[in-house]
Design a protein that fits this description.
357 residues, D-tyrosyl-trna(Tyr) Deacylase, Chain: A, 2 domains, six-stranded antiparallel beta sheet, five-stranded mixed beta sheet, 9 helices, 32% helix
Length: 357
Amino acid sequence: MSRASLLVADNKKYSLRPNTAYIPASTMKILTALLALNAWKPEHRFTTEFYLDDEQILWIKGYGDPYLTSEELDKIITELKRKGLTKITGLGVDDSYFSANLRIDGRSKSNNPYDAPASALSLNFNTISVIKNQRGTFSAEAQTPLTKFMYDAAKKLPRGKHRVNIHNQADAARYFGEVFATKLQEQGIQVSGHLLEGRARLHKPPFYRHYNSHQLQEVIKSMLHYSNNFIANQLFLLLGAKHYGAPVSIEKAQQSYSAKVKRLFSWEQKFYEGAGLSRKNKLSAQQLVTILEHFAPYKNLLKSQNSRILAKTGTLTGVSSYAGYLYKNSKWVPFAMLINQPIDINFRQRLAQELLN
């Protein structure tokens, strides 16, 4: 292979251009996971705030929680009812924590869920799931009610079951608001007025601050197992907010991410996003192995290929990567391979198995 970098940490015999940098694709998510765990610790829970103004309008302010799902909304509404909420005269959504029109390098405008946009207020990873048949359009998830936004988004889809992404930040906030309003009504809270979009009125403390029921380590495990680009780039952006404050921007995130890498590893390079979508991101097998050495306490967050391999794949057109740990000689050994040329998609797993032998 002319465009590949390979290294197994415990045996230099198994190395090929270990210091040559190539496109890492989704193995980039291991670095994002490490930086997030260093920044917030495994038990961290992301927050969303709810403000009730003098006119009984409920405002929702998003802070980029990457794991707000329909099931999480049910938990939120249970808490709102427990605090005495019985009716609202309007519902407002505030996604101003993120700058408008964020452009993540490598993200395309396709309908595929892996191209879902980042946003300060999101639901179900900024995707919708619908079924279209001769009887009409329906939500494909029992926990997610069908709303006007979902119905309109499904109009151009053929019959069948679909999961598609939401295309922009404004639509993400609108989708969140519609589903939330419907769920409020389903759980007995009276909702009147229109869905409002803008900035929450923060002149008094929040009526309720929600801490996600999932800890950061659970969020990262899901990101790594399902190669969730949305989660990865939410974390990428939130690292920028932690360092530089709001509103979150791509520039702040890139500066923060690259600075954190420099402090941790003394590497002078720029990183463009955190999921591995960008072809401008570059890492070598040696760098990935170094990352994995630091990630070792969290290795069980990676997906198991079998009882002796814990690893993350990465795939783009013409890019095939694989990085993680091999269980050799009674210990877990970091390995990494980056292949930037067309190759059989199963080659990387076969090679990892051979390295075990």
